[in-house]
Amino acid sequence: MNIRKLYNAWGPTSLAVLLTASLSTPIYAQSSADTAEGSAPATEEALTSADQLAEQRELPRGHFRLPEEGDIIGEHYTVVVEDPEDTLIDIARRHNIGYEEIRMANPGVSMWVPGEGTEIVIPARYILPPAPREGVVVNLSELRLYYYPADNPGIVETYPVSVGREEFATPIGITRTTVKVKDPAWAPPASMRREAAARGEPAPSIVPAGPNNPLGRHAILLAMPSYLIHGTNRPEGVGMRVSRGCIRMFPEDIKSLYERMPTGTQVNLMDAPFKAGWAADGTLFVQSYPQLEENVGDFEPLLNAIERVSELAEDQAEVDYAQVKLAVENPDGRLIALYGPQAPAPAPVEEPVELDGLLEEIELTTATQAEEEA
Prior knowledge:
Radius of gyration: 26 Å
Low-confidence stretches: 1-8, 18-48
Order of helices and strands: HHEHEEEHHEEEEEEEHEEEEHEEEHHEH
Helix content: 25-40%
Shape: globular
Distance between the termini: 112 Å
Oligomer: single chain
Strand content: 15-25%
């Protein structure tokens, strides 16, 4: 084997992981014991019907039934902080939500001390990304991964992820999974070793498996050299732009995918900061996230949003485009209903004032005042 050719093809990180690969047969089932951990607590106050939440709790963590009609999955709900030691990050992880998602959904709530008795919004309602519903779809701006398992066609799974920070942006493109590795080793890239050396903290050339390994215990290599979907030893950062280009997941989420996802699964790395879609009841929703600067280019956010909504609405809905503008200018992940049963009622239209009558009233008032002064 020509190691130099292999190194150039895979990159140092992928090669280090590859050399420790576990080639065990993947498992395509998840035990009930594994899924129980992701169940929501009994303290939930539903913002929607209790029946919908009860049905969702029957599914494993991150699993949703694909709608027979439309593009919306999940429901928003609230929980009340019971443990004074809980952080907002702790609560987010238990409910399959990332750092930025929980922060945007709860403005004004402390990340570190939300406080016992505080009501926390869990923003677990999503518009499916505008991409073919197959394999893995990672929406970079949304900081979320969607998986459409081929052996369970009525289900979509979704999990929060971390992606590359600006100077190490995760690339856009379609690739596939290759090798799955348990307890991978990690080779810090040359740039990281130089930075560490400049700080007087020389980094090792290889970090073995263990609690100090930033790849966590499970890694799935991609056909893009040096890019992986992997776990982490710092789960508090999941849902932020903190990686050097790889896709990071909570340890429990990558473990689940590792055990069930077939090798060769398509992975679509896309960037859709603005999403629009129909709910099953005929409501048109939009959802907007902060844009990644490196993917802006000639992208005109408002124009593209209007085009997307117009394309979906066609002639069947009269859309309030002021609400589209509001969503683009306030990208907080909140679903906004533009049209349909769940949309707010339009503001009442004031009757036009009859100009002639108004002039007559002014003249009469003026005349009366003149008489009194006389």
